[in-house]
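Reposting from the mailing list since nobody answered there.

I have sequence plus structure tokens for a pair of proteins and want to know whether others read the tokens the same way I do. The first protein:
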Amino acid sequence: MDKREFHTKQCRYYKGEPQNPYQRTDAKFILWELERHWVELEAKSNTQLLFSYVAEYNAAGLGQYASNNKTPLRLRALLLNRFYAQSGHIPYGATEFKQWFEKYY
């Protein structure tokens, strides 16, 4: 099993399809895109970027958040980064992110 296949199996929405199967109006559309992006980063071993996301995740006080969830830490960290991308600031505790994450993961 190669890296791409290994990480794809850990996704909830992205299953390796060449095109996004969800409608743009469905929240799953962006989740599929983000998971696909994460798989690409992992497959290319872009660990520097992923580690920066994990550092943000930990700095937001989420180090142990959802650790029992099957969603990999680096994917959770990427989701957090993208969730707060528009604001440019990740608040400590990330309450809104937690609510969103629990709804979709």
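The second protein, same order (residues first, tokens after):
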Amino acid sequence: MVSLAGLSGPGRILAASAQVDELDESHVKLRVPSQSLVPAVIDSIRGAMTKLMGRHFQVEVVVGDVQDETILEREDRERAEEKARLIARFKSLHVVQELERRLGDLEIKDVRED
């Protein structure tokens, strides 16, 4: 949601540190750990989501303990899972397997899909 909505600055920071309690086509309920919310920040999230969805989007923010994965944590986990998938696919190539057979286990830190 954060990356898709094109948020930046304080809006991105707030959304990234939030837990999504509810989400549908026209509403999101975010749980944040702090009351230091500026209405303009919430308005920026609302504006970005409205633009993304193509219609009015309601943003509700509640303050409370964030117990589940935050948006940023979820994005980091998904990015790491995708990276691991790409590395596994790369290592399954015959030429890579042959290199590993001859040279030993290759430490591959990153792979691009192109």
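Reply #1 (J.P.):
I read it the same way you do. DSSP finds five helices and three strands in the chain.
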